Amino acid sequence: MQNWTLTKLAGHCGARLSGGSLQELDAQTLDVVTGALFEHGVICLPDQHLTPEAHTHLARALGDIVINRFFTPVPDHPHIAEVRTKPDQGVVIGGTWHTDHSYDAEPAAISILSARELPPFGGDTHFASQSAALQVLSPGLREMLGAMWAWHSDASFAGSALEMNQDPDAYHGGVRQPVVIRHPVTGAAALYVNGDFTTHFDGWSVADSAPLLAHLYAVCTQPILTCRVAWRPGMVVLWDNRLVQHYATADYAGHARLMHRITVAGSTLAPWAEDISVLRGGK
Ligand code: SIN
To answer: What pTM does this model have?
Structure first.
C-alpha cells in the first residue's frame, strides 16, 4: 500500500501526487493516478526518475501506445518520442497552445512526459482546463458550439523549423471533431479546438471561422483557467488531452532540455450532448 498525497496546483486544473512510486504499479496506484487525472486534467509526480521501461509499463497500464509519426524516437524505444531542445534552438516543440494528436481520427487520450534533462531555469509547461473554459462562455455561444464540428489537421507540422519527420506519407489530411466533446470516461463536457491543429468549423470557410476561433483561443487559455508545472529532475507529468490544452515555455535560450513522451491512444470523440438544449443551462 503506497501513501499517495494529492495537492491541487490551481483552481481549475492540475494536482501534485507525492509519497509513492510509479515503479510499483499496484492496483491502488493505478486507481489513484487515473482518478486524479480524470478529475484534475493534469497530474505531476515528483522524484520518479522513470527508466524508459518503467515509463512504457505505466503507459501500457493506461491503454495502447500511439506512436507520434512526427517526433524523433528515443533510440531503441520507437514508441517513446524525444521532446528535445538544443541550446541553439529558438523554437521548441509544443511552444504554442495545443492538444496532442487532435488531428487523428481517434485522438490521443493521455500524454506522459518524463523529465530527462532540464535547463537551469525556465522550461515550465502550462495547462488550461477546457471544461472550465466552456463554463466561461455565455450560454448562447455554448449552445451554438454544442451543435458544431471543426476540422483538425496535421499540416502545421509541414515546413516546421523543428527537426520533425517531413515524409509526405506522415500527413493524413483533416479530421472532423465535435467542438464540445463528451469525455469518454467521465462524461464531462469540454471545449475541443486548438490553435495548432484546428483549421475551421465544419460548413464554415477558414476566413469565417477565424474570428470565432481567435475568440475561443483567447478565452480558453486565459491565466485563471491554467496551472503551471515547474519541472524538477525525475518528475513525471500526465495530462488528459480531452480535458486540457498545454503550452511549453521557451524561456531557456542557450540551454538544452530533453523530455521523453509516450502518448496513450484514445477513441473517437462524441459530442457532449446529442440534445444541445442541455448546454443552455449554467451561467
Ligand atoms: C508537448 O507539447 O508535448 C511538450 C510539452 C513540454 O515539453 O513541456
So the answer is: 0.94
